[in-house]
Amino acid sequence: MGRRQTIDRNAVLDAAEAVIREKGINSLTIEAVARAGGISKGGVQYCFGSRDAMIRAMIDRWEAEFDGEVAAMPENDGTIAGQVRAHVAATAQSGLASADRAAVMLAALSMSAGQRAEARTWYTARLREIAASGADAGALRLAFLATEGVFLLRSFGLVDMDDAEWDAIFRDIAATAAGGGETGA
């Protein structure tokens, strides 16, 4: 009796990312991912069930990776201010691969009302946490929004920005965030 084959979900997600990177979000199909991953369409469907579920799994994986990076940053002291500073630092260190992932994620969000609602909920909660963090919440909010804005502008290729300019912008954002500390608790 043969050993039952297992399919590596992360390998399938890697294949899905490759399809999107090479051909765009509209080319993401179960069949294209199966071809790219060297598995059957049934194998992809077994892992994720649908294209939307596969996109959701990609977003979940990216979010978990980024959350891990933020948590590991020395700026993250557990306070809201420290978390925002760590978010800024982790974004500043992200490369063009992260920008590609963000563009994919946003394209996917634009296609799915459910995924837009999840993103809206996350951003709303984050901004409320920042607002409740203390007297310097304005500086933290500006740093957070500037981080997201410059990341998205670069991700979508809406601004030409070399690494030196990227670094300079993030020094400015980090300086803004450094002014935003928690008062009281």
Structure description:
The protein is mainly α and 185 residues long. It has 9 helices and no strands. The longest helix has 22 residues, at 51-72.
Q: How many discrete domains?
A: 2
What's the main sheet like?
A: none
| Low-confidence spans | 181-185
Gyration radius from CA atoms, angstroms: 19 Å
Outline type: elongated
Q: Quick one: CATH class of the largest domain?
A: Mainly Alpha
CATH topology type of the largest domain:
Tetracycline Repressor, domain 2
Task: Write a short abstract of this structure.
The chain is mostly helical.
What key phrases describe this protein's structure?
Arc Repressor Mutant, subunit A, 185 residues, mainly alpha, 2 domains, Tetracycline Repressor, domain 2, disordered C terminus, single chain
